[in-house]
């Protein structure tokens, strides 16, 4: 009798576990956070206002220098992108607008592949496994820095990235200076494409 009860309790636990897995799978496939955000919901989230600020070449700050590690442990630094236009996107997995804009960022990244513009993600909250899962889910092919501990990237870009505005996307010119800032959701991929193209077209 005791054995039978234990088996029943064990089966109940398995069923409950499967229910949790199914619920999580449903959330992932439907992406409830992104859908709620697009529908005007506010799941306890405060974002930037979506404004885009461009900086004329003569008004840009000094080149941003950084050193960090990608999610797979590979070292990365600003020197790796010398002579390229670099698009830096600050994000984390549970950020609703980050999920909304992810497909557009991937598409724009692919459109500029091999044309002198490169993308780099900076995850500000998650560990590598969570960031990699997000990137797999959304088909993100450009690399991601994990900036949750030493905060090297946030510190390097201080003054350009507001701490309460995630996502933030920055376009750096070929000298590593911030040429444009998207504060909050990138609302139109075409605008980002235009900014990147204009920055690429600047004289060296």
Report on this model:
Helix content is 40%, strand content 19%. The chain is an alpha/beta fold. It folds into 2 domains: 2-30; 51-201, Glutaredoxin. α4 (128-138) links the parallel β5 (117-123) and β6. α2 packs across α3. The radius of gyration is 20 Å and the shape is globular.
Characteristics:
204 residues; alpha/beta; Glutaredoxin; 2 domains; 6-stranded mixed beta sheet; two-stranded antiparallel sheet; 8 strands; 19% strand; disordered N terminus
Radius of gyration in whole Å, from Cα? 20 Å
* Distance separating the two termini: 82 Å
The percent range for strand residues is 15-25%
Q: How many β-strand runs? A: 8
Return the structural class: alpha/beta
In CATH terms, the superfamily of the largest domain is Glutaredoxin
Q: What count of helical segments does DSSP give?
A: 6
The CATH topology of the largest domain is given as Glutaredoxin
Number of domains: 2
Instruction: Tell me the major beta sheet.
Output: 6 strands, mixed
Shape: globular
Order of H and E elements = HHEEEEHEHEHEEH
- As an assembly, this protein is single chain
Flag low-confidence runs.
Answer: 1-30
State the helical fraction. 25-40%
**CATH class categorisation of the largest domain:** Alpha Beta
Average predicted confidence as pLDDT: 84
What is the architecture of the largest domain at the second tier of CATH?
3-Layer(aba) Sandwich
Strand order of the largest sheet: 1-8-7-4-5-6
């Amino acid at each position: 009798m005791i054995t039978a009860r234990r088996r029943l309790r064990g089966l109940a636990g398995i069923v409950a576990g499967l229910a949790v897995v199914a619920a999580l799978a449903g959330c992932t496939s439907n992406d409830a956070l992104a859908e709620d955000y697009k529908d005007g919901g506010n799941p306890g989230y405060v974002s930037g206002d979506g404004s885009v600020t461009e900086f004329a070449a003569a008004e840009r700050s000094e080149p941003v220098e950084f050193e960090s590690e990608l999610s797979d442990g590979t070292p990365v630094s600003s020197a790796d992108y010398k002579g390229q236009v670099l698009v830096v996107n600050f994000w984390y997995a549970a950020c609703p607008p980050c999920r909304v804009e992810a497909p557009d960022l991937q598409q724009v990244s692919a459109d500029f592949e091999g044309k002198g513009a490169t993308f780099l993600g900076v995850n500000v909250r998650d560990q590598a496994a969570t960031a990699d899962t997000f990137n797999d889910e959304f088909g993100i092919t450009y690399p991601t820095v994990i900036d949750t501990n030493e905060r090297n990237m946030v510190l390097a870009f201080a003054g350009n990235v507001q701490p309460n505005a995630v996502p933030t996307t920055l376009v750096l010119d070929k000298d590593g200076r911030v040429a444009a800032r998207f504060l909050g959701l990138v609302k139109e991929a075409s605008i980002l494409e235009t900014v990147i193209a204009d920055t690429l077209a600047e004289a060296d």
